[in-house]
Amino acid sequence: MTSAGGIQIPSRLPLLLTHEGVLLPGSTVRFSVGSPRNMQLVSQRLLKGTSLKSTIIGVIPNTRDPEHDTDDLPTLHKIGTAGIAVQVVGSNWPKPHYTLLITGLCRFSVSSLLKERPFVLAEVEQLDKLEQYTTPATSGASAEDGELGELSQKFYQAAVQVCVSDRYR
Fold it and tell me: Biological process GO annotation list (predicted)?
């Protein structure tokens, strides 16, 4: 799971098809799971998994309403986000469903679909590096960050001047 270039996601990921939104790297989103495919993914991978690797899944937007999940696999987007399931909550009322809290790790591209049932499993290629999780955080934006970095530096300097001038009044 690790390499010289940082953390690597598995080359095969189960895919969570969602119509509720888009998961981005670094964000944490709560997803409701009720379709048969996604329910199988949760019960077979997330609840029975014994390693951290088993909690990494791919999240891909799906335009089809999951209430009408048929045997036909909808046309999938080719780009998704790998995420780690940090919380799984299940309920049987009013009907069986799960709620997942997923934190996005990095973007991936779907190379090929390996299977469609009981849940979608795909061969994926990692697009982003996960260096932000393996290197220490910087002390803020720098001038090398372009216009945003320059504005951040100016804002910081102005804030320091205001604090210093208020202290000596």
Answer: protein catabolic process
Instruction: Output b/e per residue, 28-59; b: 16+ Cβ within 10 A.
Output: ebebebebebbbbbbbebbeeeeeeebebbbb
Give CA torsion, residues 115, 121, 127, 131, to 10 deg. Answer: -160
pTM, two decimal places: 0.69
For 145, which DSSP code? G
CA dihedral for 121, 123, 125, 131, sign (positive or negative): positive
Most confident of 52-61, 113-122, 137-146, 158-167: 113-122
Contact 106, 130 (CB under 8 A): yes
Do 51 and 125 meet the contact criterion of CB atoms below 8 Å apart?
no
Residue 84 CB-half CA count within 13 A: 12
Q: Name the amino acid, one letter, at 158.
A: A
Cα radius of gyration rounded to whole Å, the chain: 21
97-115/28-33 β-pairing: antiparallel
